[in-house]
Design goal:
Layout: H1 6-14, H2 30-35, H3 40-49, E1 55-58, E2 84-91, E3 97-105, E4 108-115, E5 137-139, H4 148-151, H5 160-180, E6 183-190, H6 192-199, H7 201-210, H8 212-234, E7 240-244, H9 255-275, E8 279-283, H10 292-298, E9 302-306, H11 316-323, E10 328-334, H12 335-341, H13 344-358, E11 363-368, H14 376-392
Parallel strand pairs: 1-6, 6-7, 7-8, 8-9, 9-10, 10-11
Antiparallel strand pairs: 2-3, 3-4, 4-5
Helix pairs in contact: 6-7, 7-8, 8-9, 9-10, 13-14
Length: 398
Amino acid sequence: MSGLSSRERMLRAIRRQETDHIPCCFMSFAILKKRLNEDWFDVARQELAMGLDSMLFIPSASRGSRPDHPDLRGLPVRLHPDVKIKEWRQKSSDGYDYLYKEYETPVGKLSTHIHLSEDWPHGDHIPFIDDYQVPRAGKPLVNGPEDLPALEYMLFPPKEEDILQFRQESIKARAFSQEQGILLSGGWGVGMDMANWLCGMQNLMVLAIDQPEFVDQLLEKIHVWNKQRMEVVLSAPVDLYIRRAWYEGCDFITPRFYKQSILPRLKAEVDLAHEHGVLFGYICSSGTKPMLDFYKEAGIDVLIGIDPIQGTHTDMPLMKAKMGDSTCLWGGVTAAITVERGTEQEVRSGVRNAIRTLGPGGFILAPVDNLTVDEPITWQNIGIFIDEWKRTSGGLIT
């Protein structure tokens, strides 16, 4: 079993097969990406040089190049060509500045406005979908069934030029992944996260209880749109397709709603990936405990983002007991608390606990979700993290 490439090791772990040692692949490594000017190839080379496993993600467009969907990685989000957009800034009678945005479609208008704050990162622009606008929105973009016809003009399939550009990128990415022996992943898929961006989190929680039929209709439109985007990414081909589902835990929805409205569509997307011979990854780092049986039923290959501290309802022993025979588990250590701020003992203990609880087979070690604080203690702890992984992942790694 010795001499596996990083890609082979990752694939074997996701398939819950024997590996030479437990892989360690960071979910996201923002501080390294920033230092290397978002050059994804250089990031992969540097991760391999550090002894880590690596993963190349396509489409690779940086956050800054996605002004209308900074939090949704992947293919460009396109609106129907007949949609007309107006944006303006206005001071209200209470003396506060607001940004307004209106989308005029052939069947009606959708509009939103946000209360500007000092930490607003988008200037005089409101993205179509974005985490930042949700808590600042005075009016969400989508509020009820009357908005669904117009929304169809906002969820437009990928354009031919986007598909061509992606295929060109995928050829280069596949060649690089084969040359370096690393996993090639793609995505992101999206479901309830998209609904939260459109409706606002608190509003959507109420709507899911008061108007479940409307939310189900909304999720169906998102599902159809998402599958159109999936088909493009799955044509690459990629080794692993990833769906972001940070807002699909029990912090935001009930298990009953999950079973009725999310699970059937998730199963369909998993089946689509498998039909293309692609593994399916699902990112949810909080509120997972009541959903574990649903993940198994959906047939996901790997649950990404297991966070033992910041993730609510995270029960790692239960995860391993319930899912270990069917699903790979990826994560195990909290990035923001343990790796970015912890003591050496806390880092080493966190790594050992993750390996002991979630390993050895069907497990990929990682800080969850991201490393964003570029300070000496972070880099020092990354070194400790890697050292402890090498010592305890199935023998000293050379």
